[in-house]
Design brief:
The protein has 341 residues and is mainly α. It is built from eleven helices and no strands. The chain is globular and about 65 Å long.
Length: 341
């Protein structure tokens, strides 16, 4: 019995640590996205570009701090979730339409994968963890669906929706962007597209505002943990509560913004997030926990399948971590810290 309690406690702390690493890395990604969209909008209106990406990362971080202070909990995000959906659609529709227009008028593109055999292998492994990072956003509708009974049935409905209809815009913008620009497609697609300035500006501002809202959603567990840990109660705008949010959430976002400005490589951080936390949480820990809980009632074939998942995705997690770190090191040498990418 004591062994089970000890094992369960270790699994609890491991899951807790991986989840918060996952959320922190996602926040880094949203800060880089917000900074990139602000810079892309700035470039549209200024001929002589003097502001670099780290400045926009600071601006994005400051706006996120203001939003975090004025939005005390997840319940106060209700109205913002509808805004988030609209902003996402604006970005997706504008980027897809303008990219498709460019693709129809563009000369033949280069679709080859450049680099040595080793770099191609590392890129493919890194891309697999990128996919894990992207599909990890399904946890938001999954969590929201559990608020009403029957929780499990509603959660499954939300996940079915996320991974059928929900992936259509995601795949659309990926395939249209690559078809239109080939190997020269940017991580942030709006940096490639051509079209009316006001349309691109609207899409960039939408992407920025969406990144602010989305970051707050994924940072909320950390905020709630700090509020609970330090027993912050009372009204949202009472002096003690307000002061704590300014210090705690502001400090958290200052650290996140500093890391984002130091290493502004969005795709690399997505790969590292998928490797460090999403692979273990989704496949390794889930399979192991199910195996431990149901071992006596599982057939040998079922147990073998679970162990195959554990071993295979453990290897994938290690390989993807190495690939992501390699990408960050290579890009760091190429661009240096506080790079203007």
């Amino acid at each position: 019995m004591s062994f089970r309690v000890s094992t369960g406690r270790k699994a609890y702390y491991l899951t807790w640590a991986l989840q918060y690493v996952n959320l922190f890395m996602i926040n880094i990604g949203f800060l880089i996205l917000g900074a990139s969209s602000l810079k892309a909008c700035y470039v549209l209106f200024v001929e002589e570009v003097t502001m670099k990406l780290p400045y926009f990362t600071g601006i994005a971080g400051f706006v996120c701090i203001l939003f975090a202070i004025s939005t005390p909990n997840l319940s106060s995000l209700r109205v913002w979730l509808a805004c988030s959906t609209i902003l996402s659609l604006i970005y997706i529709v504008v980027a897809s339409v303008l990219a498709a227009k460019d693709g129809m008028n563009a000369p033949p593109r280069d679709y080859s994968i450049h680099g040595t055999t080793a770099s191609k292998i590392f890129s493919i492994i890194g891309a697999s963890s990128n996919l894990m990072f992207a599909f990890n956003t399904g946890m938001v509708p999954e969590i929201q669906a559990t608020l009403r009974q029957p929780a499990v049935e509603n959660m499954l409905k939300a996940l079915y929706f996320q991974f059928t209809i929900g992936v259509v815009p995601m795949y659309a913008i990926i395939f249209i962007g690559y078809w239109a620009y080939g190997a020269s497609a940017s991580t942030y697609l709006l940096s490639n597209v051509s079209g009316p300035v006001w349309v691109k500006a609207a899409a960039n501002i939408s992407a920025f505002l969406q990144s602010v809202i989305a970051l707050h959603i994924f940072a909320s567990p950390a905020y709630e943990y700090m509020d609970t840990k330090f027993k912050i109660t009372g009204g949202a705008f009472e002096l003690k509560s307000l002061t704590f949010r300014i210090v705690a959430r502001g400090g958290y976002l200052v650290i996140s913004s500093t890391v984002s400005a130091l290493l502004p490589f969005l795709g690399d951080f997505e790969s590292l997030t998928g490797a460090l936390s999403t692979f273990p949480l989704t496949f390794i820990l889930a399979s192991h926990m199910y195996l431990v809980a149901k071992k006596s009632s599982l057939s040998s074939l079922q147990q073998s399948w679970l162990w195959l998942n554990i071993v295979f995705f453990s290897c994938m997690s290690i390989a993807a971590t190495v690939a992501a770190i390699r990408l960050i090191v290579v890009d760091s040498k190429k661009y240096h810290v506080f790079a203007d990418v």
